[in-house]
Write the structure tokens for this entry.
Amino acid sequence: MRKILTVLAALASLSLTNCGYNAIQSEDEQIKANWSEVVNQYQRRADLVPNLVNSVKGFAQQEKDVLLGVTNARAKVGSIQATPEVLNDPAAFQKFQAAQGELSSALSRLLVVTENYPQLKSDALFKDLMSQLEGTENRITVARNRYIKAVQEYNVTIRSFPTNLTAMTFGYKEKPNFSVENEKAISTAPKVDFNPAPAPSK
């Protein structure tokens, strides 16, 4: 009896391998791992925002609208639960992407404003925060690209025969991906000239 069960288990395992079940499982886990890294890097960026806003406020308090825009965008990002369940809900994923895009835009507007304040640009704390932000943006780009690639491979797998039959049987569906529209903008890390502007000649 034990031999029969062993043979049946082996046949079942072979069947699942041939039908792509194991490949789907593996690719699904890879997506979750890559998504976790995307979320971690976005969180790292969000954590920099309060200190960045306070730093700018010290030199450019009159830029209230821009500072408020960054603060509100950061709050919206923080209100979204970026759990792995988001990956099975295109609407929730779109909401997450839109919130992060809004924060990216708000930070870009903030950086434009800082160009008008040479003393701010030469401030040691501000320079350090900007260096951290730029590094984080680069890590976000890398993490997003890994996620995009993993989702593309997974989506191709569950659409291809015969694994599409397995995907239908076990309820695996295509996962949402980052849209290409803002990919170019997001993949460009913010740049700030740390050299103070030359004093006007008299």
